[in-house]
Structures are given as structure tokens and as C-alpha cells.
């Protein structure tokens, strides 16, 4: 078999090379000619999967190593009898790490504890739902807006979008992009919602760029620069609005879910689905192939203030400010569109909170609790 894979899918050789010839290509530049003779196509979110790309090819199976599927014409694939799979939940903890790092940064700037802010999560699927679990475990009050889930499960525990915007201090958007149906999310945060934001609120967008009306947001920020927005996803990626970029408090190029661990989970999920599709044995496991974290452990005294310990461990793993500064360097050197894609292609290795082992004594109750709830691995020192 011939397997064509996005160059940004890690461990593709380790998982797939036994099944045929593996060819790596830049995802945004994949052409009809390049995939015509492929049997398997493995992509990320930057490749549009539709008849224009695949008609007349011999592709039998398509996998996207992402949670999002709005770049895939699933109906056309089904009509052609082409197998398809995505990787739901693969990078949920990575996005959660991104949000927690952001909340700690603003908390430090404002002198506000994590638990003193109400976080409204819009979209409680694989990513948003996992984020809510982690935030609530940390003692943070969360409001949840998810109309499809509220419709299926009942309204208890869910909040309408207008009510959430009125009551939350932080609004974190994690919806998939849905353009049609009963619950479309294109410009879910429309002009009227953006106008309703208070200047002391924080808006985080880390789902899909088209879920927020970028023009309305830009107009609001030009009038009220004190409103803080964190944008990881954008309309018209990679050629994003530079004026909006300059107005954002934190701006990153769609990398909230770009931890190595999240991407590796996505690769394993595609491998397992491909094996099932073709009736092949599953011989590879991520545990056999996953690289060891270069920072194996950190030791913290039981006397450490819990919130200081959380801040230290978080920034040891991931500091969102570094990605903001790195994005600006890429933009200055290469321009916006090229810099956007190049930073994603060359993104530094980033590990999730769970890969950092924190060494604590058994008696470090309060410190242990906050770090475990944030997602860090706790171990007791050897005697």
C-alpha cells in the first residue's frame, strides 16, 4: 500500500511504515496529483478532504489526526465507500494546559486567585468537557453552554450563551465548526455577544476560528483595548487579520492542542482505526514508542504554597507567553501566513502536565491535591 501523510504527524513511520511505502507532504500543499496513487491518506486540519482532492484517486481510507472534522466532506467520502476516522479527544488535555496556563498568567497580572474567577466554557465536548472537569477539580466555578448536550440531557447544569456572558469572568470557546443544522456554530459569538462583553472579562478562543466574528471582535477591541482576548484560532488561517492579531492580549497560531503527547495519541488512534478498517492486527502501542520526557521530575517541599507550586509546575511544562513571543518572531521574519504555518511545522517539543512527575512527601496534602487536580503525576520520594 502507498500511504501519504502530513509531515506534521509524529511517529507515522513507526506506526505505518510496515504496511507500505510512506510519503510525507506539507498538509496545506497536498495536491490531487500527489495523492492520486495513495491507498491511505493521513492528514491534519489544514488539508481539505473533498472530491476536488480525491476524485479519481485510489484512496480507500482517510484519517485526520485531529478532533475537528470540518475540513472533511464526510458525506462525499461515505458515498465513495472511503473509510474515514478522526481522533476525538486526542489533544483535550493539551488544550486544557493552554487554558490553565492562560488563567494563571492573568491571575498573576491581576493579583486574582484561580478560584476567584468564574469560567464559562462554551462547547463541552471532548475538549471543553475535559477542561470543565479539570477546572472544577481545582475549585473553580464553571458555567457550561452546550445547546446540543442540553437538548439531549436536559437543561440542568447548562447555561444559555447570553446568561453565561453576563455571569462569567472568563469565556473559553471550544465548539466545533458547524455551519448548518439545528445548532450552527459559525459566528456563534456574533456582534451582539461581543458587544455585551465587559471590559473586565477575558475571552479565550481555542476551538475553531470561524466560531467568533473576527470583524466584530476587532471593532470592539479598537474601541475598548482593555478587553483582553486570547486567540489561538482565527478566521482565514493562515492569512489571518494582522490588525486583530495586534489587538489580542495573547496570540498563537492554532497550537493550543499541539503538545507532542496529543499528536502522538492522534497518530495511534489513526493506526488502530486503519488496522480495523483493513482487518490487520494491531501490533504497535504508543507506550512502546513514546519518547521519554527530557525533564523527568521536579521536587517540591510540602511547605510550598499550593498556588505557587501550581504556577511553578505549570510554567515548567508550558508557558503560553513563550508561544506568543515565538509567533511574533516568526511573523516578523516570514510574514503572517508563512510564519503561521512555519511555526506550526517547526513547533518546539511540548509535553503535557501529566508527563511531569512531581516529587512530594506523603504529608504534602494541600500541595498534592492541587497538583493532582491540575493533571500532574505525583510520586513520593524513595526513602
UniProtKB/TrEMBL annotation:
The active site is at residues 208, 237, 254. The gene is pdxB. Substrate binds at residues 45, 66, 258. Keywords: Cytoplasm, NAD, Oxidoreductase, Pyridoxine biosynthesis. One of its GO terms (cellular component) is cytosol. GO terms for molecular function: 4-phosphoerythronate dehydrogenase activity; NAD binding; protein dimerization activity. This is Erythronate-4-phosphate dehydrogenase. Belongs to the D-isomer specific 2-hydroxyacid dehydrogenase family. PdxB subfamily. Homodimer.
